[in-house]
Amino acid sequence: MTNSVLCAIDISNGNLDAQVLKKAASLADFEGAGLDVVTVLPDFGESFVSSFFEPHHHEQAMEEAQENLTQLCISTLGEDRNASIRHVVATGTAYQEILKTAESAGSDLIVIGAHKPDLKDYLLGPNAARVVRHSNVSVYVVR
After folding, report:
1. In contact, 97 and 130? CB cutoff 8 Å
2. Are the beta carbons of 33 and 84 closer than 8 angstroms?
3. What 3-state DSSP class applies to 80?
4. Minimal CA–CA distance to 110: which of 40, 62, 12?
5. What's the pTM?
6. pLDDT tens per residue across span 49-78
7. CATH code for the part of the protein at 4-142
8. Which end of the chain is less enclosed by CB atoms within 10 A, N or C?
9. Closest C-alpha among 3, 40, 8 to residue 111
10. Helices assigned H by DSSP within 1-143
């Protein structure tokens, strides 16, 4: 039985991940499980690139990501369903943060979309492939 579903979406894709979110909500509802939704921002804080941004840039990006994540959930699933969703904005490498979030949330299932496949990652996008390969729980890939 599934108690917790983690849906990983990329808010920079706009509404492209709406179908991923719908599938995750459907699976969570079917199992009577909780639903967490995560998006991951790149980490510019510890690299040479960080010197090109203002000190408060990361906080602004986090706030904007949280708002965009919440709005995507509301527009896709409705306000009532959104009220029971835990929204998570993480910073770092996408697949690593998705796996960390799944572990800390006690997720039994990760739902992720397969996007932008490169030739070497023809069947899955690079983050989806890494999540599938390294996850300790089941992963449902939405195409």
Report:
1. no
2. no
3. helix
4. 40
5. 0.87
6. 555 567 677 789 899 999 999 999 999 999
7. 3.40.50.620
8. N
9. 8
10. 18-31, 57-77, 79-82, 94-105, 126-134
